[in-house]
TrEMBL record:
Keyword Glycoprotein: no
Protein's UniProt keywords contain Transferase: no
Domain (IFT80 second beta-propeller) ranges: 223-308
SMART domains with a match to the protein in the record: WD40
Descriptive protein name: IFT80 second beta-propeller domain-containing protein
GO biological process: cilium assembly
Length: 351
């Protein structure tokens, strides 16, 4: 597996981009040195102007509220922006600031929502990492160090925080009486000058970043592999899959209309998802897949059994389907619903 990297065309007059964040699966928002907010689709070459920030607000980081049940429909609408004056701002998608909070002494270098959208963290030049409620109320100061914090992020379960300390990365457990973990490693120097910020998309298959020379970096994962019996499957490009039968060395190249996010091949079936659709192929016929629409956003995880598969869409509950795409419910013999991630015995499956 590797990243295929592209440097986008620079903005007019060589203006540098200082902040970048994913708003949708294929769209990012940029904030540049001229205080303009722009949107940029991964399919287009030119960004679109969204709003003009106050000339005294110098943004250092931005992130959209993540998709989750607790976000109450505001995912992709509420934006967290941090600035060099020690404040963070909650802004709507059109560029109107709804609230500003004085948070740090010196610039805030990192601002990030937690994964369920109920709170956020900020980290800054003053060496502090603070946790805030979604509305901007201070909950706690979890780190107070002697050096600036240039990077910080939540763990998937929101129970710990990883942050930079000098040349090391430290993992701090939020539960009391836990000793922090610390390590360091070497980094490869990029060819486009310093990279100010790198942000992964929610589905984990793309990233975007801002560079010191004014370029906006974009990349996506290729050469992802999956194997089943005599079949070897490779995601060779963003929208292309190669299926090789090792018995007779035949190769099927499958072209999709949109980029590939998730892929799994088992039990004589191959399932792959794009941002809007799910494809189910039989290993006996690669020409006529069963296709159905996804209800809300990209799939973040797939699991397959011999007759069923489980797809987890971002911000939604898991969904169990059979191999012709029909939704099914899973219940115990007494009629009560079971957790789709656990398969207790006995159980009955009803379409």
């Amino acid at each position: 597996m590797r990243l295929k990297v592209t440097l986008r065309q620079k903005l007019d007059n060589g203006i540098r981009v200082t902040c970048v964040g994913w708003s949708k699966t294929d769209e990012v928002y940029l904030i540049s040195e001229d205080n303009q907010i722009r949107s940029w689709s991964t399919f287009t070459t030119q960004p679109t102007k969204i709003a003009q920030l106050d000339p005294n607000l110098f943004a250092t980081d931005l992130q959209f509220l993540p998709r989750h049940e607790n976000s109450l429909g505001r995912h992709g609408v509420l934006i967290l922006i941090t600035s060099s004056d020690g404040k963070f701002h909650l802004m709507n998608r059109s560029g109107r600031i709804e609230r500003s909070v004085d948070a740090h002494k010196g610039a805030i270098l990192v601002g990030q929502w937690n994964n369920d959208g109920t709170g956020l963290l900020t980290a800054g030049e003053d060496g502090c990492i603070k946790i805030w409620s979604k509305s901007g109320m201070l909950r706690s100061t979890v780190i107070n160090s002697d050096s600036s914090v240039y990077g910080a992020c939540w763990s998937p379960d929101c129970q710990s925080i990883a942050y930079t300390h000098g040349k090391s990365i430290v993992i701090k457990q939020l539960a009391p009486n836990n000793k922090p973990l610390k390590w360091s490693r070497s980094l490869e120097m990029p060819q486009s000058g310093s990279i100010y910020k790198i942000v992964w998309s929610n589905d984990g298959t793309q990233l975007t970043g801002t560079c010191a020379n004014g370029n906006v970096l974009s990349a996506y994962l290729v050469d992802r592999h999956s194997h089943y019996l005599n079949f070897s499957v490779t995601v060779s490009e963003k929208k292309t899959i190669s299926v090789r039968n090792v018995l007779d060395d035949t190769v099927e190249n499958l072209e999709l209309p949109d980029r590939i996010i998730q892929l799994m091949i088992k039990y004589s079936n191959m399932i792959l998802t794009t941002p809007t659709q799910c494809y189910i192929y039989s290993t006996n016929n690669w020409n006529t897949p069963f296709i159905f629409e996804l209800k809300d956003g990209a799939v973040s995880h797939l699991e397959m059994s011999e007759k069923l598969y489980d797809s987890l869409e971002l911000g939604r509950k898991p969904r169990i389907c059979d191999f012709v795409g029909n939704s099914v419910s899973v219940r115990r013999a007494d009629g009560s619903l079971i957790n789709v991630q656990i398969s207790p015995f006995p159980e009955l499956i009803h379409k």
